[in-house]
Write a structure and sequence with these properties.
mainly beta; 174 residues; single chain; 0% helix; four-stranded antiparallel beta sheet
């Protein structure tokens, strides 16, 4: 269970707390990315999660049995989505700011063992109406990903190559 600052594990039968890993003095501002849940993903003996620190979002890997932090990764860019595990790859969206008033979304992959960034591919660029923190999510579908960000939906492969893009259109009442 994640509250965006700490991760806790419970026994599913008894409900007893098994372990909890908090940020302590490094905990970020609760208003940073308001109303955005941060869901961890389990893969084997590891749990991968995104959490908010004083220096921004980070990607972290925990040992599933003990809650011990295996590694932490905080790229120069915001980790904008929860991580997903697909075809042996740990991926997440990064938000970068290549130009004033724009935010670029990149699909990044990380080494699940060390957290080292492996690749990052530009996916799309949007006008920045979210102060560099756009609401976004990734879902695994078949052998690819569905990315929802800023009113757009992108289908891409696991390397970040877009296959199609749909923009949600908003029309005001007349």
């Amino acid at each position: 269970v994640s509250n965006r600052f700490q991760l806790s594990a419970y026994d599913v039968v008894s409900g007893k707390l098994l372990w909890s890993a908090a940020l302590g003095n490094e905990q970020g501002d609760a208003r940073y990315w308001p109303l955005i849940s941060m869901q961890p993903v389990a893969a084997g003996e590891r749990i991968f999660a995104r959490r908010i620190t004083q220096r921004g979002t980070e990607l972290v890997c925990f040992d599933a049995a003990s809650g011990q932090v295996k590694w932490r990764q905080r790229p120069d860019n915001h980790i904008a989505s929860d991580p997903v595990f697909v075809n042996g790859r740990l991926v997440a969206l990064l938000a970068t700011v290549p130009l004033t008033q724009f935010v670029q979304m990149e699909l990044a992959s990380f080494d699940p063992s060390t957290g080292e960034p492996l690749t990052h591919e530009p996916l799309l660029r949007l006008r920045d109406d979210w102060y560099q923190k756009p609401p976004c999510s990734i879902r695994v579908i078949d052998d690819g990903l569905i990315v929802s960000v800023g009113g757009s939906i992108v289908r891409c492969d696991v390397r970040g190559r877009p296959q199609w893009l749909r923009k949600q259109i908003w029309l005001p009442r007349t």
